[in-house]
């Protein structure tokens, strides 16, 4: 008898479980922040994985990845629906491949079951760490927005970032997910062992080195305010600049550091020092007797621009600058522009940003400031490089005003919190319409603005030295361990399959 092919409703039902598991994982991302649901979603993936063949694993990996990333990257739909679908589709594929490589688990109790015999215990944490790393390097230099590690911001596991950065944090999500999955088979020992391992690791991370306090200084973060969902044009650029000049008059003279957001100063010359705005900013720095760090964009020829953080000293002179290195694909430049122009309208990005070079720090009178401009806050390697080069505090001038919802501002703030934990440095984030924030070295947000409001955040932050384990080691050892865990998981799965296959003897 020929088996019937599943109907449309049956296929939809079969896909519903994986997608639902992915949506649960997405629930841990900012702005939602329900981190326990992310672990539950990973556990759902493990439960659904049991007993699946190769094609079943592929469908599951794609379904979970889609359920996670389509809501997690919903901010992209505000620009173009086809672009959103294409971009998320690429990232789904990058996420699904490592998940496809995870062998099915053995859940429940009995012979051959439990943490010692289940290759999933090795492979899934390794796969999630590999996902985290892959997302940070491809495509176009990486798009690490909405990743497994970011689902744990503000949860009890995020201190692990101080030890192993986002890779170790992602792996811990995998361990916790496999442990919870064993509840389905009522196998209490692997549940207890897995959760105990994660809890002990998280407790150890809380006492891991996070640098030493050297001194402190006063700061003011200026947010000019305005509506979300706006696009840049010459008139709006003048309004944004005027708002920030106006709000800066509320800053107390003698404040050590005043931080403005990204690209609130737009000039049509190749060097801001030659623009009229430079005189205004010089006068502000002198009047306030402060180090003033400002986000600047400069036109370079007819088809290029630079995005920089420029510092004026208390004497009114420019003392340092850093040019943004990690450009936003399709936001600040068009990859393969000649090809893309023949396929789509790219008039919203008429010029390509020129990538900066050098170390992401500003040597200023107030101290050595690590810098990550906007999109760069999603890249752990940039703030790690800044702190390894002597950064005592990290500044993040950013601009999420073009997004009409709060998802991207919340994702940026969450990423900046992770960068603080990883590096053991206070992080100061400035955005023209929010979120601006003062973040302590342990990732705690001590002050933050509301979206659209005009405000000045003031406070005192610690100038710190020394390195966390993550700053000292970087991603290399954790990536190697993740790949090894994935390979070992597969090797153990093969041995288990071989042992379970009955031998046939011919006489």
Core attributes:
disordered N terminus, 14 helices, alpha/beta, 14 strands, disordered C terminus, 43% helix, 507 residues
Structure description:
- This protein is 43% helix and 16% strand.
- It is an alpha/beta fold and 507 residues long.
- Helix 5 crosses helix 6 (161-181).
- The protein is globular and about 80 Å long.
- Mean pLDDT is 91; it is low at 1-10, 110-117 and 503-507.
List the helices and strands and how they pair.
Elements: H1 8-26, H2 35-49, H3 54-72, H4 81-100, H5 120-135, H6 161-181, H7 188-206, E1 212-223, H8 234-248, E2 257-259, E3 265-267, H9 276-288, E4 291-300, E5 304-312, E6 318-323, H10 337-341, E7 352-353, E8 361-364, E9 367-371, H11 380-388, E10 393-397, H12 407-423, E11 427-430, E12 437-439, E13 445-448, E14 455-465, H13 469-473, H14 476-500
Parallel strand pairs: 1-2, 2-4, 3-4, 5-7, 9-10, 10-11
Antiparallel strand pairs: 1-14, 4-5, 5-6, 8-9, 11-12, 12-13
* Uncertain parts: 1-10, 110-117, 503-507
Task: Give me the Rg, rounded.
Answer: 25 Å
Largest sheet: 8 strands, mixed
Which whole number gives the mean pLDDT? 91
Distance between the termini: 35 Å
User: Helix-strand pattern, N to C?
Assistant: HHHHHHHEHEEHEEEHEEEHEHEEEEHH
Amount of helix:
40-55%
Helix-and-strand structural type:
alpha/beta
- The shape is globular
Query: Tally the helices: what do you get?
Result: 14
Number of strands: 14
Percentage of β-strand residues: 15-25%
Characterize this entry briefly.
This protein has 507 residues and is an alpha/beta fold.
């Amino acid at each position: 008898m020929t088996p019937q092919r599943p109907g449309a409703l049956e296929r939809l039902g079969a896909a519903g479980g994986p997608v639902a598991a992915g949506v649960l994982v997405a629930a841990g991302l900012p702005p939602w922040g329900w981190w326990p649901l992310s672990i539950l979603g990973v556990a759902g993936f493990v439960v659904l994985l049991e007993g699946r063949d190769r094609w079943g694993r592929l469908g599951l990996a794609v379904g979970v990845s889609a359920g996670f990333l389509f809501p997690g990257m919903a901010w992209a739909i505000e620009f173009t629906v086809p672009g959103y679908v294409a971009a998320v589709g690429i990232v789904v594929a990058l996420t699904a491949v490592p998940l496809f490589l995870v062998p099915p688990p053995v859940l429940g109790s009995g012979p051959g079951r439990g943490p010692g015999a289940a290759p999933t215990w090795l492979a899934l944490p390794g796969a999630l760490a590999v996902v985290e790393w892959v997302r940070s390097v491809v495509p176009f230099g990486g798009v690490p927005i909405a990743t497994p590690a970011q689902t744990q911001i503000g949860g009890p596991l995020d201190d692990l970032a101080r030890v192993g950065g986002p890779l170790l944090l992602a792996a811990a999500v995998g361990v916790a997910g496999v442990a919870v999955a064993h509840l389905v088979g009522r196998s209490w020992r692997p549940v207890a062992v897995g959760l105990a391992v994660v809890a002990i690791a998280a407790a150890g991370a809380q006492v891991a080195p996070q640098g030493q306090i050297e001194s402190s200084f006063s700061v003011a973060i200026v947010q000019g305010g305005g509506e979300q969902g706006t696009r840049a044009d010459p008139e709006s650029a003048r309004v944004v600049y005027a708002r920030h000049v106006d709000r800066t008059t509320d800053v107390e003279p003698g404040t050590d550091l005043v931080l403005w957001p990204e690209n609130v100063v737009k000039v049509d010359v190749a060097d801001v020092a030659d623009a009229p705005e430079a005189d205004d900013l010089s006068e502000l720095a002198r009047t306030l007797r402060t180090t003033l760090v400002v986000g600047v964009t400069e036109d370079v020829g007819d088809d290029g621009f630079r995005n920089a953080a420029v510092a004026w000293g208390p004497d009114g002179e420019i003392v340092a600058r850093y040019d943004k290195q990690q450009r936003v694909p399709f936001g600040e430049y068009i990859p393969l522009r000649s090809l893309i122009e023949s396929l789509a309208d790219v008039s919203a990005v008429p010029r390509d940003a020129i990538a900066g070079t050098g170390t992401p720090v500003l040597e200023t009178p107030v101290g050595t400031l690590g810098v990550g401009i906007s999109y760069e806050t999603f890249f752990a390697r940039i703030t790690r490089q800044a702190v390894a080069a002597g950064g005592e505090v990290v500044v993040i001038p950013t601009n999420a005003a073009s997004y009409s919802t709060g998802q991207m501002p919340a994702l940026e703030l969450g990423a900046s919190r992770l960068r603080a934990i990883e590096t053991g440095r206070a992080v100061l984030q400035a955005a023209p319409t929010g979120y601006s924030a003062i973040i302590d070295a342990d990732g705690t947000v001590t002050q933050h603005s509301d979206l659209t409001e005009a405000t000045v955040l003031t406070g005192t932050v610690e100038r710190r030295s020394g390195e966390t384990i993550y700053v000292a080691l970087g991603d290399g050892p954790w990536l190697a361990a993740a790949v090894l865990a994935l390979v070992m998981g597969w090797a153990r799965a093969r041995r288990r399959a071989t042992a379970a296959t009955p031998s046939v003897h011919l006489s």
